[in-house]
Every structure is written in structure tokens, then in C-alpha cells.
Write a structure and sequence with these properties.
This protein is mostly helical. 60% of the residues lie in helices and 5% in strands. It folds into 2 domains: 313 residues, no CATH class; 150 residues, STAS domain (Transcription Regulator spoIIAA). The termini are far apart.
């Protein structure tokens, strides 16, 4: 094993799974200080080298995402520096690099572009406030231990949203790749304006060649762990422009000199008319950035055989965004492209990120004009390459094969983002996720159960046509929680099962093991069902109901109204109780064998 590769964690003892105890007090809020107290001097060389390597990637990527978001290039470096420093203190992940990210570009641009009217300072204030809003939301949610919220979006919906974001970002960067300024607000408008500009001959051939060359280098070096494609392409393009004086001779748009020094602490100020779009944008950023960060942190934690608290991860991300926002930066997220660079370079802890941030800060202090000849077409190519990496196709093919409606759900989310915009698109994704959840609970599976000779238990008679039904007894299973959206449907299907019985029914036993909850509306419907059945001379009973659900029925007064004798621990006990009470002729196959 080479020195640059982190040593794998020792495998756990067979048969045992170890998880760290939850930190308390200041240790929970400042995991960076805890890690510092446990730091081993042997790690220092690895973290220093990894930080230097990381810095070479942080600079061009940070600038590229800032420009793509409609912001001054320098803001990408400010966000990178202060985001990394804040996360090193508050973030729980051993190796995770935060910074400007392609998944947030469309969200930021969707707020900044229509409100800033081309004013870079106003654009920066808007983006900074989005970072502050998302940071506060993440800190509050993490403190309230709501780190599970991003898991509410299903995989197809996440794929659709990210594919829509990738398509939006890609189209927005095409004009810069071709060497001219883009027009239009929405995806369709931008696409039409781009096509018209190309047909009108606005393409700058030299800029396009540089951009295409950048893409080629990035994709050719995609699998290389020693040569970061983005860095090689940026350095090559910058040297080419400077050596051939392409900015003057061929009119290639370039970045220009960056401001020298570090930013002052400044809370971003916006107008009252900006509040609603900035709030919506901040919420969207918080959801997307934490979804990306939590997935990435879990991936690297699993690889190292460790565990990361998702709630503290949300706090760390929130503090990093807050720091970026008040130091003239913009929203940031975990990076799926820069984190592997740090890991491959041998990073042991977050000190690698701190070193990278300090190197970038040193560049701004000492040599801010170093990248003045960096062509904007190259920056656009860096963003386009990242957007392409966001696109998910392989797993969507699998989803299409196994469940087509979820595939089309994903395509619908992608179309929503592409047509409506990034902010509206994530709202649509959340609405669809809620509808998907309610639909599964609203139209759950249910079954009438019977006894199958030779098979233990009671089974769905629609799947076992030879199943025997006990005369006068209906065993009805409902495979979902009982709540307001499906309570009446439950009642209707239960009554249909009674009506379809081949013999007069005396007991209806609900197999309630899958029922994980009951709300007030459902409890009232159960009471109505009991009255309806009682009028027909039928007893309503329950089997295998969970104790927490019983506790709710007790609070609602339904348990005492029905009587404890109507509740059975198992279906077998319910059947035995029915046979004993009614004396119907019934011989079970197990009794025959006996």
C-alpha cells in the first residue's frame, strides 16, 4: 500500500457491529476540535500534501461555478475558503470537501439572474442571503434532529430532479462555451436564443476550440487519480491564451485579474421585494445541498468503516453556508469531484481542507492576477463536464425494466425542472413525493385470508385458490397504516369482504399486524364499521395489533368500547376463539395430521 492511500479501518469482529456512542455537550457541536485532540502527528504529512493538491482544483472549479451562477468570479473562492474552514470545525466527516457545486448552479442563477438586473454587487448580496437562509435552516433542522428529511424524496424523484438540473446548467453554459453572452430566462428561451446566435455567426472559433479542448482533456483524464483533468485543462488553456495573446488578437473572453486580499465580514442586504424568492431559493438549496452532502458523507463513512451523524452533518453544512454567506460567498455543498481528489492524495482529516483553503487565501493575497488569462469558455467547459456527471441514465434503465411508472415519474420531474425552473422544479418534486407517499397509503394492498393445507399460517385466497375458509369467519388483512386518506376505503373493502363470503358471517377479524398507526378519523370510521356490523349480527375483532396502536385506540376510547375480548394476540388465537364461541364444524389440516 502506498503512503498516499489511507489505511483501511480494521474489520470488526465477526458477528458484532460497533457504532460510536452519541457525543454530548460541546463535543457534539464541535467534532473538529474532538478530532484535533485525537490527531496523530503521523497524519500531518499526508494532510499537508493532500491540501496542496486539493488547492490546485479548488481554484478553477470555484471560479467556474461562480461565473456559471451569474456571480463575480472571486465569490467562488471566498465561498470555498470560508466554507472549508467552518466545516472543518463543525463537520463530522473525516474527509469531505465542501464548496461551490454544479447541483446548486441552476438554483442560484434562478434567483440571481431575474433580480440582479446585471448588477454584480446586488447578485452577490442575493446569493449571499440564499447561503445564509440555507445555513440557518440546516442548523435549525440538525439541532432538531431532522436529518432524515431528505430521505423522503424517492430515488426516481431525486434522479429526475438532478437530471433536470444538469440539463438546465448545460444549456446555460453553451453560449460561454461558444464565446458569446447568452440570453433568455427559461430553458426553452435560452435554447432558442443560443440557436439563433449560432446561426447569426456569433461563435468565437478560438473560444470554442479552447472549450472543446477543455472538455476533451477532462473526459480523457476522468479516471486518472494523479492528474486532475480540470486543473490540467485550465492551466493549458490559460497558458495558450497568454502565449498567443488570444484575448486581444482573437477576442477570446477571459476572466481578468481577481481582487487582491480577503473579504471583510459583511451581512448581505436585500430589499423587501427579494424576500420571497430568496427564501424559496434558500429552502431549495438547503434540501439539495444536504441531500448531496448526506449521501456523500455516508458513502465515505461506510468505506472507512465508520459512522457519521446525519444531524451533525446538517449542522456542519449549515455553519459552512452561513460562513460563506457572510463573507461575500454563495451557497455551497459537498463535492463529489473534489472529495475523491483529497482522498486519493492521502487526506487523513479535515486538516487537508483547511490547508487547501489557506493556500487559496494565500493566492488571493499574493498573486490574484495569476488567472487573468483564463478563458471563460474553459470555465464553461468545467461546469458542463460537472453537469454531465450529474446525469443518471444507467439506474433509470433498471427502474424502467422493473417499474415503469416510477421511471415516468422521474422523467416528469426532469421535465418540470427543465420547463418550470430549478426552484419551481424542486417544489414540484416535493409535491410529487408527497402524492406518491399518500397514494401508496391511500390505495394499499388488502386481502381475505384462508388456510392452505400443508402451509403454516393464513394466506391471501386470491393467490391460493385452494385455501379453505372457516365458515362464518372473515379474516381481512390491511397492509398499511389506517389514516384519514384510506379509512373509508378500508371500511368499504372490509364490508365487501363480508358481503362476498360464501357463508353467513358471524365474525370479521382484521389482521392488523401491518397497521402501524391509527388516527382520529380512522378510529371514528372503525367505530362506524362496528355499529354497521353489529346491526347485522357480526362481531368486529382484531388480531396481531401492535401495542402502540392499541394505546392509541385506548386514548380514543375505542378499545374500551369494543372490549378487550375482541383483541387477539395472533390469528391462530382469533380462529380458536371463534370456533370455541360458535362451535362451527372445522378441522384444521394440522389436527388431521395429529
Amino acid at each position: 500500500m502506498s503512503d498516499s492511500t489511507p489505511a483501511p479501518a480494521a474489520p470488526p469482529e465477526p458477528g458484532r457491529l460497533t457504532r460510536p456512542g452519541k457525543a454530548t455537550g460541546w463535543r457534539r457541536w464541535l467534532p473538529g476540535l474532538v478530532a484535533l485532540r485525537q490527531y496523530e502527528i503521523a497524519w500531518l504529512r499526508h494532510d499537508l500534501v493532500a491540501g496542496l493538491v486539493l488547492a490546485t482544483v479548488l481554484v478553477p472549479v470555484g471560479i467556474a461555478y461562480a461565473v456559471a451562477s451569474g456571480l463575480p468570479a472571486i465569490s467562488g473562492l471566498y465561498a470555498t475558503i470560508f466554507g472549508l474552514l467552518a466545516y472543518a470545525l463543525f463537520g463530522p466527516s473525516r474527509v469531505l470537501v465542501l464548496g461551490p457545486d454544479s447541483s446548486l448552479v441552476a438554483l442560484i442563477l434562478g434567483v440571481v439572474l431575474p433580480l440582479s438586473a446585471g448588477d454584480p454587487q446586488r447578485a452577490l448580496a442575493l446569493a449571499g442571503m440564499m447561503a445564509v437562509v440555507s445555513g440557518i435552516l440546516c442548523i435549525a433542522a440538525g439541532s432538531a434532529r431532522l436529518g432524515f428529511v431528505t430521505e423522503l424524496l424517492s430515488k426516481p424523484i431525486r434522479y429526475g430532479y438532478m437530471n433536470g438540473i444538469a440539463l438546465t446548467v448545460l444549456v446555460s453554459q453553451l453560449p460561454a462555451l461558444f464565446g458569446f453572452s447568452g440570453q433568455g430566462d427559461g430553458l426553452l428561451t435560452k435554447s432558442l436564443a443560443f440557436g439563433e446566435a449560432v446561426l447569426a455567426g456569433k461563435t468565437n472559433g478560438a473560444a470554442l476550440a479552447l472549450g472543446a479542448g477543455t472538455l476533451a482533456v477532462i473526459f480523457c483524464l476522468k479516471r486518472s487519480k494523479r492528474l486532475p483533468g480540470a486543473l490540467v485543462a485550465v492551466v493549458g488553456a490559460t497558458i495558450t491564451v497568454a502565449a498567443l495573446d488570444l484575448a486581444t488578437r482573437a477576442g477570446v473572453p477571459v476572466l481578468g485579474a481577481l481582487p487582491q486580499g480577503l473579504p471583510a465580514l459583511a451581512f448581505p442586504l436585500i430589499t423587501s421585494g427579494d424576500i420571497v424568492p430568496v427564501l424559496l431559493g434558500g429552502v431549495a438549496v438547503a434540501l439539495v445541498s444536504f441531500a448531496d452532502t448526506s449521501v456523500l458523507s455516508r458513502t465515505y463513512a461506510a468505506r472507512a468503516g465508520s459512522f457519521v451523524d446525519p444531524n451533525q452533518e446538517m449542522v456542519g453544512l449549515g455553519v459552512a453556508n452561513l460562513a460563506a454567506g457572510i463573507f461575500q460567498g454563495f451557497p455551497i455543498s459537498a463535492s463529489a469531484s473534489r472529495t475523491p481528489v483529497a482522498e486519493a492524495a492521502g487526506a487523513r482529516t479535515q486538516l487537508a481542507g483547511v490547508v487547501g483553503a489557506l493556500v487559496v487565501a494565500g493566492l488571493l493575497m499574493v498573486a490574484p492576477s495569476l488567472l487573468r488569462n483564463l478563458p471563460t469558455a474553459t470555465l464553461a467547459a468545467v461546469v458542463i463536464a460537472s453537469a454531465i456527471a450529474l446525469i443518471e441514465v444507467k439506474d433509470l434503465r433498471r427502474i424502467y425494466r422493473i417499474q415503469q411508472w416510477e421511471f415516468w415519474l422521474s422523467i416528469g420531474c426532469m421535465a418540470g425542472v427543465a420547463v418550470l425552473g430549478a426552484i419551481e422544479g424542486i417544489g414540484l418534486a416535493i409535491v410529487i413525493a408527497v402524492i406518491e407517499f399518500l397514494w401508496d397509503g391511500w390505495r394499499p394492498h388488502f386481502a381475505v385470508l384462508g388456510r392452505v393445507d400443508g402451509v403454516k399460517g393464513y394466506h391471501d385466497i386470491s393467490r391460493y385458490p385452494d385455501a379453505r375458509i372457516i365458515p362464518g369467519l372473515v379474516l381481512f388483512r390491511w397492509d398499511a397504516p389506517l389514516f384519514f386518506a384510506n379509512a373509508e376505503l378500508f371500511r368499504d373493502h372490509a364490508l365487501d369482504a363480508v358481503a362476498a363470503s360464501p357463508t353467513p358471517v358471524r365474525w370479521l377479524v382484521v389482521s392488523a399486524e401491518p397497521v402501524t398507526s391509527v388516527d382520529v378519523t380512522a378510529a371514528d370510521v372503525l367505530e362506524e364499521l362496528d355499529h354497521t356490523l353489529h346491526a347485522a349480527g357480526i362481531d368486529l375483532c382484531f388480531a396481531e395489533m401492535k401495542d402502540p396502536v392499541k394505546d392509541k385506540l385506548k386514548r380514543f376510547g375505542l378499545f374500551s368500547a369494543l372490549g378487550e375480548q375482541r383483541f387477539f394476540a395472533t390469528l391462530g388465537q382469533a380462529v380458536s376463539g371463534y370456533i370455541k364461541a360458535t362451535r362451527v364444524p372445522w378441522v384444521d389440516w394440522e389436527d388431521k395430521d395429529g
